[in-house]
Known about the structure:
Layout: E1 2-5, E2 10-12, E3 20-26, E4 39-45, E5 51-56, E6 58-62, H1 73-78, H2 84-89, E7 92-94, E8 97-99
Antiparallel strand pairs: 1-2, 1-6, 3-4, 4-5, 7-8
Amino acid sequence: MIVKFLDGSVKKLTIPENWTVTFSSFIPKMNERGHVHGSPSLRVYGPRKVQMGCFVGVESFRDERIVAEALNKSELDDLYWTPQMELDLAPRIEKGEVKKNKVPELF
Length: 107
């Protein structure tokens, strides 16, 4: 896993396959007014959901198995982006049944 921290540093974490990683705020304590200000963090849980580590000040992270490729403008132009109106008219599934959406009046 590649992790970028808020201070700009980048680190590679090797985490066993059967462990779990979560992303959340790390809140060590509340201030005098009861407000909390957490720092974005990665929590690492081992067997039996025991917390094995907490990395604070995390800006972003990704699993190394995720491949991110930049697309050039012509590749972006070839992609089809579904307009919101088309999505609004698409059938939906409710409790296992296909329901048609109402056609909105345009005028």
